[in-house]
From TrEMBL:
Domain LRAT: 43-170
Protein name: Lecithin retinol acyltransferase
Keyword flag Cytoplasm: yes
Keyword Membrane: yes
Catalytic activity: all-trans-retinol--[retinol-binding protein] + 1,2-dihexadecanoyl-sn-glycero-3-phosphocholine = apo--[retinol-binding protein] + all-trans-retinyl hexadecanoate + 2-hexadecanoyl-sn-glycero-3-phosphocholine; 1,2-didodecanoyl-sn-glycero-3-phosphocholine + all-trans-retinol--[retinol-binding protein] = 2-dodecanoyl-sn-glycero-3-phosphocholine + all-trans-retinyl dodecanoate + apo--[retinol-binding protein]; 1,2-dihexadecanoyl-sn-glycero-3-phosphocholine + all-trans-retinol = all-trans-retinyl hexadecanoate + 2-hexadecanoyl-sn-glycero-3-phosphocholine; 1,2-diheptanoyl-sn-glycero-3-phosphocholine + all-trans-retinol--[retinol-binding protein] = all-trans-retinyl heptanoate + 2-heptanoyl-sn-glycero-3-phosphocholine + apo--[retinol-binding protein]
GO cellular component: endoplasmic reticulum membrane; late endosome; perinuclear region of cytoplasm; rough endoplasmic reticulum
Organism lineage string: Eukaryota, Metazoa, Chordata, Craniata, Vertebrata
Domain of life: Eukaryota
Length: 223
């Protein structure tokens, strides 16, 4: 479970532009996005390189979205918490499994990416709730919350708000990929080769032999 979370974390981190050193990212220019086509309760998607970030539009250039963040654990200062989440805060939030449902401007939410509106509606069809109900659900959840990369991320948040069911297709796809790797018998051979290489390099010891045996056995049985 820990390994899966760390792997999934690698595709969830927002890469800051070069030279920011994990500090505050440069804000997008106000009015960069045309919000006239957005309606209260819309589900917004921002495709990244390896993942998609989600939020619920609340109207007046505001978006509610779930972000890993360590800061609410240490302070109740809303002014500090409301600042754009840096990579340091995000990483520590993922590690400690803490997050917050926050309200940001469209510019801060999208972070320069393109925005898709209600793109997931086609997958849920008749399950789409009313726009006002979706927005009210999002507003009620604003504040600190628990976080899990696999079981409670930004996609779970928006699907609960708009469709009444907290699901994550990104998580499902990742788990299916892991399942395919485990079922592929070549992974057994790879684990044996890696184990033998570690034994040759580090010597015959419980720390090298036992993982080789158990991991190979697990992959063989799971396959």
């Amino acid at each position: 479970s820990l390994l899966l979370e760390k792997l999934l974390f690698l595709v969830h981190v927002r890469a800051l532009p070069a030279g920011t050193d994990g500090g505050e990212p440069p804000p997008a220019a106000p009015g960069y996005y045309d919000t006239s086509c957005f309606q209260r309760g819309d589900l917004l998607e921002v495709p990244r390189t390896l993942f998609v970030h989600f939020g619920i539009y609340l109207g007046e250039n505001r978006v509610a979205h779930l972000m890993p963040d360590i800061l609410p654990t240490f302070t109740d200062d809303r002014q500090q918490i409301q600042q754009v989440v840096t990579n340091k805060r995000l990483i520590l939030g993922v590690i400690t499994k803490t997050a917050s449902v926050r309200v940001d401007t469209v510019e801060d939410f999208a972070y320069g990416g393109s925005i898709l509106v209600n793109h997931m509606d086609r997958l849920f069809k008749d399950q789409v709730l009313g726009s006002e109900e979706a927005a009210l659900r999002a507003e009620k959840l604003v504040g600190a919350t628990a976080y899990s990369l696999l079981w409670n991320n930004c996609e779970h948040f928006v699907t609960y708000c708009r469709y009444g069911a907290a699901v994550s297709f990104q998580t499902d796809k990742f788990c299916e990929t892991v399942k395919m790797i485990i079922r592929d018998q070549r992974s057994v051979l790879a684990s044996v080769l890696v184990g033998l290489a570690s034994i040759v390099c580090l010597g015959l010891a419980p720390s090298t032999t036992l993982p080789t045996i158990f991991i190979t056995f697990f992959l063989w049985m799971a396959g």
